[in-house]
Request: fold
Amino acid sequence: MNAKQLAGEKAVEHVKDGMLLGLGTGSTVYWSILKLGDLVKKGLNIKGVPTSTNTEKLAINLGIPLVSLSSINQLDLTIDGADEANRNFELIKGGGGALLREKMVASISRRFITVIDDTKMVTDLGEFPLPVEIIQFGWELTLKQVSELGSKPKLRMDNNAPFITDNGNYILDCYFGKIQDANGLKNTLNMIPGVVENGLFVNMADTIIIGNKNGSVSTLYK
Ligand code: MLT
Reply:
């Protein structure tokens, strides 16, 4: 079993019958969703809120019942991946492009488990470029304003055209170097008018499940 699968499947041990679940997006939580699909076939009663159209399609194919975010006030648990995590439980997310919906879903979750492989656990965030979702209107201006914060933003591309999120927006991938004050940067970025949301998740994850190359799994609790 690869490290991502180990972490993804381990997280599902925290799921209990009757739970309302946030279903993350990406290559690690993919394994959690596959496992949930198996358990649903065997009678587990859960409902999920997907964080992307990709996860929505996957869940529908697996027969996982879904509800819309608007129809609920709180989720019991969200399981999602991350591109980087540190020992303060701060995350960079958005490599998969779903950061906005992921953050909305995480914000109403009583618990948030992050599933990663051991290559994503870092001392300092920032080697992975921080994804920032911006509106298309005036995007060059927003890029300039983000770069003035000390980053080198690049418009994310997809086959020679700008990558478009599920929300119809663009993404800037931003090299800030080592991020020392994740909360401050998160708030400063979101003050720029053309910025919709950024991939810094602070005070959201309470558990990090790490799949290791050697086949073991480590769990960190906040
Ligand atoms: C993300 O945060 O964009 C993804 O969930 C990371 C992943 O692929 O696991």
